From TrEMBL:
Protein name from the UniProt record: 3-methyl-2-oxobutanoate hydroxymethyltransferase
Involved pathway(s): Cofactor biosynthesis; (R)-pantothenate biosynthesis; (R)-pantoate from 3-methyl-2-oxobutanoate: step 1/2
Function according to Swiss-Prot or TrEMBL: Catalyzes the reversible reaction in which hydroxymethyl group from 5,10-methylenetetrahydrofolate is transferred onto alpha-ketoisovalerate to form ketopantoate.
Taxonomy of the source species: Eukaryota, Fungi, Dikarya, Ascomycota, Pezizomycotina
Gene3D superfamilies in UniProt: Phosphoenolpyruvate-binding domains
Pfam families: Pantoate_transf
Gene source species: Cercophora scortea
PANTHER family given in the database record: 3-METHYL-2-OXOBUTANOATE HYDROXYMETHYLTRANSFERASE (PTHR20881)
GO cellular component labels: mitochondrion
């Protein structure tokens, strides 16, 4: 506003021949004050071949046909956008984002409001995949009513289509409470990371006959409570395959072999979006090297800025010569 007034005042002192150009420029200056042009597009270009929306019915049909279900984590708009574009049937906003997106030590640190924020971001990008939000530690264990209230917030505020919670037989009543309210629940048995302190760390579960029976009993209990599918984490492949055969709902394996009905991985891990030397669990396969590609690109940008190669003329916006002359004349008088 100050700049516009100053230019208008300066117009009176300019030769009459230059005044029409300034007057013509005034609408542009006014528009400049009101609009901020951005180089960012929320969605980019729409997919050329949009997929049909994945539903609970879709997942059940896949399970009946024996077709593996693909699932991956996402923690923000870009990671969800690429997961959806890549054809994932399910996208999980996992509490692993505590470490891979927020730099926390483990999943116990993240709070409900933080999870909801990330769920909303993922939901904006996910058009076809079935979305599931991970209930964080402390938001569902106290009582079934607490868990239901949290699950409702994940659907209404987080815009998720289902929720995931950890635990076996002891969580059956809670799962039943949520599913009875019409909210799909993805179970999670075997290694339950939120309880890693009680388990003595991130240890494989079901390595003994008694341990394997416990995982099976937990899986049967949460199935009976109404889960539409169950994550099996860090369980011997043979045990996971037997459990999968015993269940009537799909199993989603992570470190549980290829006998499960589907698989899930943390996107940051499998795309290689981390610096060299970071520890990875045995079950993670690194399918890409996003860190190295990003590092190379940013280093090139740094070098070109330092050498003034960037921005080049093709990266700048032109101005008509006569308008520039008017501007230069006016600016000299400010």
């Amino acid at each position: 506003m100050y700049l516009t007034r100053s230019l208008a005042r300066s117009c009176a002192s300019l030769p009459r021949s230059t005044r029409p150009s300034l007057v013509a420029a005034m609408p542009f200056l006014s528009a400049f004050q009101q609009f901020r042009h951005s180089s960012h597009s929320p969605m980019g270009t729409p997919p050329t071949n949009p997929r049909k929306k994945v539903t609970i019915g879709t997942l059940r049909s896949m399970h009946r046909r024996g077709e593996p279900i693909t699932m991956i984590t996402a923690h923000d708009f870009p990671s969800a956008h690429v997961a959806d574009a890549a054809g994932m049937e399910m996208v999980l906003v996992g509490d692993s984002l505590a470490m891979v997106a927020l730099g926390m030590e483990d999943t116990s640190e993240i709070i409900l409001e933080e999870m909801l924020l990330h769920c909303r971001s993922v939901a904006r990008a996910t058009k076809a995949a079935f979305t599931v939000g991970d209930l964080p530690m402390g938001s569902y264990e106290i009582a079934p009513q607490q868990a239901l209230e949290t699950a409702i917030r994940f659907v209404k505020e987080g815009r998720m289509q289902g929720i995931k919670l950890e635990g076996g037989k002891e969580m059956a009543q809670t799962i039943e409470k949520i599913t009875t309210a019409g909210i799909p629940v993805l179970g999670h048995v075997g290694l339950t990371p939120q309880r890693q302190n009680a388990l003595g760390g991130f240890r494989v579960q079901g390595k003994t006959s008694l341990g394997a029976m416990k995982v099976l009993e937990d899986a049967l209990a949460v199935q009976e409570a109404g889960c539409f599918a169950i994550v099996l984490e860090a369980v011997p492949a043979e045990v996971a395959a037997i459990i999968t055969q015993k269940l009537s709902v799909p199993t989603i394996g992570i470190g549980a072999g290829n006998g499960c009905s589907g698989q899930v991985l943390v996107q940051v891990d499998m795309t290689g979006n981390f610096p060299p030397g970071r520890f990875l669990p045995k079950f993670v396969k690194k399918y890409g090297d996003v860190w190295s590609e990003s590092l190379k690109a940013i280093e090139s940008y740094r070098d070109e800025v330092k050498s003034r190669q960037y921005p080049a003329p093709e990266h700048t916006y032109p101005i008509p010569k006569e308008e520039l002359e008017v501007f230069c004349a006016i600016s000299k008088k400010l």
